[in-house]
Amino acid sequence: MNDPNENIPIEHIRAISDPQRLAILRRLMSGKATLSQLGDFFDATAAHVRHHLKVLEHAGLVELCEVRPVRGFLEKYYRATSYALQIHFTVIPEERRAVTIGTMDHALARLAERMAAGQPGLIPLVFPLSSLDGLVSLRQGICQIASCHLLDPETGEYNRSFIRRLFPGQPMVLVHLYEREEGLIVRAGNPLQLHGLEDLARKGVRMVNREHGSGVRVWFDQQIKQLGILPENLEGYERITRSHQAAALAVLDGLADAVVGIAAHANNMGLDFIPLCTEPYDLVISEEEYQNPRLVPFFDLLNSADFVRLLGDDDLISGYHVTNTRGSVELIS
User: Fold this and answer.
1) Over 80: is that where the pLDDT of 303 sits?
2) Is pTM, for the whole model, over 0.70?
3) Could you tell me which CATH class the domain 181-279 is placed in?
4) 81 burial via Cβ count (<10 Å: 0-12, 13-18, 19+)
5) CATH fold label, 10-178+281-332
6) φ and ψ of 176, to 5 deg
């Protein structure tokens, strides 16, 4: 049998060589947490935890994933990154039954939290992967479930053509989740009076972009092409952020005037949101894995009234729309 550590990058091995850092990474692989929550969990000072977090961040194993306003302050949440997928079988005890989900979606992550709290022994591991990276990881057997919102510019269809290209001849299941609002995130009060993508080409307007392979980037590149906007005329087009959270944070910190993102993160940070489109958001899973009995609790919760209430009542989730296709299944082959 091959050594499970032989393919782990050396910087990752160094980062987890300290037992305390390994413990922090284990904790963040089971769910996001703030600096203070980690301090309470490990009975350690904030300075002590911050030191180990910085090492894990530098190695690319931990990242900032969420910012929540609490009593006039912004609480920062951290999670394990997609790079931690390379070592998750090393740091997660074998007896725990893990379900790996590749997604950057806020509501789906909240669903996983609910599942973790209500299903002892069934551990959902949410790794922040873009739509395309999620599908590739699914094909490689790293993830069991991937979320997807990829628009094919040739057909105008979401997700199906990408699944057919990446999984030729393999039966795959597309599970319809909900629709999600995307648009421009701008500073509170919209001081530059930005109203559409064409305004990003105005002189002095700064943006940041999402990485190639993300659903937002695929949609954005198609839209500016249709509008006749050249990338070189967009200040900040080449500046990349790897999550909706990081993009919105760039506006909050004054590093950008506008980004394309989702309503939830704009509202959570007290920023303004200009809706531009509503897109379908789906799950992709192999037909064989979809029939796996141990995933029944996950899909039961997905189809439950409790999850619908979560989308409608949770202050941290906004801009999601439940349709009559929620939970419906489509076989792609």
Assistant:
1) yes
2) yes
3) alpha beta
4) buried
5) Arc Repressor Mutant, subunit A (1.10.10)
6) -80, 130
